[in-house]
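Re: that backbone. Tokens:
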């Protein structure tokens, strides 16, 4: 505890670990379920390609004088990453936003996503393609795994990368380098740069 005026410590209390609250198996199961919320459920607006994000949305109707208020909500999202070994937890709550659809997944999840994206660089969180793939709907920007064409001929690379825009540099008949990194999620139809040698 801190004294408010002098900021000196009045009393220091060390945490005392009493017992394991839940088992590792239960923790793993809950983290998987919350990763599924982000990949396939109401938290899909917090999904970050090539990273494992777990989370849960919330939509709570506010109360005044013992009665629910009409059209007045607290919209929330709590998210964490990486889902298999969390390094950061973010909670975002928005009190009665105006002019938007009143759901935590549409209002708070995108805010949390931006915070988590900034945390990737700050905490040096590595990409991981082992997470749950996102199930897309018609409104979503689609992402696909970029095939690895290093070592292929120009003709083979063209066939493998159908649907992508291809930019070549260098000279030769074989692909010696590919960007973005192969075997990671990229926007469907995006540009792939191939170095020939």
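Recovered sequence:
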């Amino acid at each position: 505890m801190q004294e408010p005026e002098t900021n000196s410590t009045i009393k220091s209390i060390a945490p005392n670990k009493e017992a394991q609250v839940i088992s590792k198996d239960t923790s793993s199961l809950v983290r998987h379920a919350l990763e599924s919320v982000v990949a396939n459920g109401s938290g899909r607006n917090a999904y970050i390609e090539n990273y494992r994000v777990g989370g849960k949305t919330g939509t709570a109707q506010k109360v005044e004088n013992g009665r629910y208020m009409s059209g007045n909500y607290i919209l929330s999202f709590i998210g964490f990453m990486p889902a298999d070994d969390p390094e950061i937890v973010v909670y975002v709550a928005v009190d009665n936003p105006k002019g938007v659809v009143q759901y935590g997944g549409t209002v708070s999840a995108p805010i949390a996503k931006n915070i988590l994206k900034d945390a990737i660089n700050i905490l040096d969180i590595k990409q991981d393609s082992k997470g749950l793939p996102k199930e897309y709907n018609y409104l979503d920007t689609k992402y696909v795994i970029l095939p690895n064409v290093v070592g292929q001929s120009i003709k083979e690379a063209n066939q493998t990368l159908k649907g992508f825009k291809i930019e070549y540099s260098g000279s030769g008949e074989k692909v010696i380098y590919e960007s973005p990194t192969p075997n990671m999620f990229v926007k469907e139809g995006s540009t792939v740069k191939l170095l020939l040698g």
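The domain at 24-122 is CATH 3.40.710.10 (Beta-lactamase). The chain has three helices and eight strands.
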